[in-house]
Specification:
- The structure is a homodimer of 465-residue chains.
- By secondary structure, chain A is α+β, with helices and mostly antiparallel strands.
- In chain A, the strands form six sheets. The first copy, chain A, has a four-stranded mixed sheet. In chain A, strands 8-9-11 form a three-stranded antiparallel sheet.
- In chain A, a hairpin with a 4-residue loop joins strand 15 and strand 16.
């Protein structure tokens, strides 16, 4: 269904520039499908439609069952007008010609015309299986998954990656809006902690802020007192005095652009000394890593910087033993900082993750097999216009810390007795969205406090019952 | 992912009774698949998982990539344990054996065992295409869509319909919870109207109430000042003094049971005289139809009763001319009451709509070709234990009222000039969920006011800017 865009001319110009840039990179036509609505219970009851990000990048609008064909900087839109019978249920829909005008298409056709214009075109496989079948049928050849494209599809993929890696002004306008609403959502979540009984109460307050701005969530919210479960999607746990609440929640604009923010705060409104001690280590890693962001910097080095700061902090607290540099070499940081320092953000919260590591990893680089590096999603030299997350964390994951092999390997490195004193720190993450600028960086989400005292103020000092 | 159920023993007993009843209806095994998570942007970013309703009916829990095999009242669960590597991201998951115990399964196996136990089994096609392919592969035969099953699949479908048509105590417990939270959501929506600037603000307040109870929405919310667009999914329109806001929003419990409620209220906190006049007609239809619900009553007659009351009211207002009975015969009510009086409610908001009309229409009955009857989703004799919606409405749909053929046909029936005075009544619907009891009815959503004055009180008299 068509969502409203605020500034049609800005969008039109951005779309024109994007396809002109594409024309400089590939000399064959590209066809990008939007995908279709997915049934939930029965055919008429569907999940909210969300177009493929690659389609959105070049077409700008959430159009169902549509495709764009791009060649030499020209855009053709393929879309069927809604049948007259649908007017009763869905109201008057804009006609194909109006939509084509809105996005500055050079021509527009019904879907039935696509087959005759498909020869020799490259594409990217969408997520939904029925549209994938249609892609193969229209192109009259196999279409491999987006993470393993072949021949011209691989060339197109590389070209799209080189475009989407850095953001133009139109994209940045959207990304800033998503960031601003996400900041408001986190403030609402902190404020709601005072009265919420279970995690779901805080989640509801946060998502409500996003929905009230007519945006959606860019990923399933994590709002949990079990921050050590990285992708927890349960919200039924009670909020208890002494718990930390970890909220990883982001907004997505109507046009599909994402934000991704995490804060961790005390349910009672006050960090315990152990929680504060670990929080300050994670915050130091967060602040120092953000300060290091600049064009030309290796993102992997920022990950290792976070690892060193966390190792150092844990040595200072007596949880780890040894020299921080050596500890990172031994992956001891990864006992607690169990994921990478961050990822690309754009039309996807992990931008272009459908391409596997083709987008996140510079050509010629591959995932490390090291325990302390293998989860890194981004391994590139930073360029102006990239938007990345910085999200250091500390977690006590039972599956890691109770693993007999790991316990043996790190027996003398970890002061297990000391660690037991930090049992009330199950998971802490602090995450912001940082734009690489020509001279350094801009934190799009900087209006959300990271400082423990300010956060305590937002949560308030009233403990829930 | 596994959600928590409150009362395991109640659930276990209900599941046992359901499959024992099934054993009385079919003499072949049935295998029901739950389906899988659907990718949104990329494989790891999925829509919230929702199991097939038929699976939920017999298995009770939202298990991904699972199946149950039911034969002679015995239940076998097929489910793979989560790989150890997933513990980092999703925490410790319950083992197959624990889940089997929780639902009272007689045996439990990994998915790989299903093929050898699939011979001769009937099934129902799920919604997701990849699982459909798996169904056909496991059963080694084609599996047709749920609305057009063949042979034993058709027999199983009829058996499931006969079970799911009426609700047991376990189901009713869930349905009452969904209804209660839905009532709270509507009250929150009315209260939020005072401060919301756009429809999205009211929607956010309503869905937040649902999310805060750890429930989901049972269908995409309709919250619109354009009530004449029956399935509007836009939320960007400003709320203006003089507008009516139509909200069709329902909760779904973690186990999948739905509610479905609509209220229509004035943005300003006060109905105009024209709005009040039409509201009272729709309310009279609503109240009278609910009073008529009883075992043994033809639901179609309730639809026609609503049609007569609406026609009568519109004659009294001078909008229609003629005898109400005759007007209904001529389908004149359907110019404004453009849909059916309601539908079944259960694990689906339109319960078992994946079966097409096999569930909604009694054997031997088919949709009417009449303009004023063809949209009726339920045409059965009511039985104790059925849950149905009653949702009369009045709409001025441009596609209907401006249709030249319709205008000609109803030229002398409609006082078009008089109708013009009611231009501020674009769409009104009042919908509740009614359980057919042994002696009559119980309105599960009765705590939500329908009375115009009470609604005005809830919205408050403060108009938004």
């Amino acid at each position: 269904m068509l969502k409203i865009t605020k500034d049609c001319e800005l969008l039109k110009n951005a779309l024109l520039q994007r396809r002109q840039k594409l024309a400089g990179l590939v000399n064959f036509p590209a066809i990008l499908w939007s995908g279709r609505s997915i049934s939930r219970n029965y055919p008429a009851l569907t999940y909210p439609f969300r177009a493929s990000s690659h389609f959105l990048y070049f077409a700008g609008l959430q159009l169902e069952n549509a495709a764009v064909r791009i060649e030499s900087g020209k855009l053709e839109l393929f879309l069927d007008d809604a049948p007259a019978s649908s007017t009763l249920w869905h109201g008057e829909m804009p006609k194909r010609s109006e939509i084509a005008d809105r996005i500055g298409a050079d021509a527009a056709f019904p879907m039935a015309e696509l087959k005759s214009r498909a020869k020799g075109a490259a594409t990217v496989a969408v997520q939904d299986y029925l549209t994938q079948l249609q892609q193969a049928k229209m192109l009259d050849r196999p279409v491999f998954p987006a993470k393993s494209p072949e021949e011209i599809d691989l060339e197109l993929t590389k070209a799209i990656i080189s475009l989407r890696l850095t953001h133009d002004e139109s994209a940045l306008t959207e990304l800033r809006e998503a960031a601003a609403v996400t900041v408001a959502a986190h403030k609402a979540g902190m404020a709601a902690t005072k009265t919420a009984r279970i995690e779901a109460g805080v989640r509801a307050a946060m998502e409500s802020e996003i929905a009230s701005q007519n945006m959606t969530c860019s990923y399933p919210s994590i709002v949990t007192v079990h921050g050590e479960i990285l992708h927890s999607e349960h919200y039924h746990h009670p909020l208890k005095t002494g718990d930390l609440l970890l909220a990883d929640v982001g907004a997505e604009t109507a046009a599909g652009w994402a934000a991704d923010v995490t804060r961790t705060w005390p349910v009672s409104g006050k960090f315990s000394p152990t929680q504060k001690a670990i929080y300050d280590i994670v915050l130091a890693a967060h602040d120092t890593c953000i300060d290091r962001i600049s064009p030309g910097v290796e993102y992997r080095e920022i990950h290792l910087l976070a690892a060193r700061i966390i190792a150092e902090g844990l040595v200072d607290l007596g949880i780890l033993r040894g020299n921080p540099e050596d500890l990172v070499e031994m992956d001891a940081h990864a006992l607690f900082f169990v994921h990478g320092i961050g990822h690309l953000i754009g039309l996807d919260v992990h931008d272009m993750e459908d391409f596997g590591d083709l987008a996140g990893y510079q050509a010629g680089r591959a995932r490390s097999s090291r325990f302390g590096l293998g989860y890194l999603r981004l391994n590139r030299v930073l360029q102006a216009g990239m938007l990345v997350s910085i999200e250091p964390g500390f977690y006590q994951v039972p599956a890691i810390l109770n693993d007999p092999e790991i316990r043996t390997k790190y027996q003398d490195i970890v002061n297990w007795e000391k660690l037991n004193q930090f049992v009330d720190v199950r998971g802490i993450r602090i995450e912001d969205d940082i734009l690489v600028t020509g001279v350094g960086r801009e934190v799009l989400t900087e209006k959300l406090p990271t400082d423990a005292l300010e956060i305590e103020g937002l949560v308030s000092v009233c403990a829930p019952s």
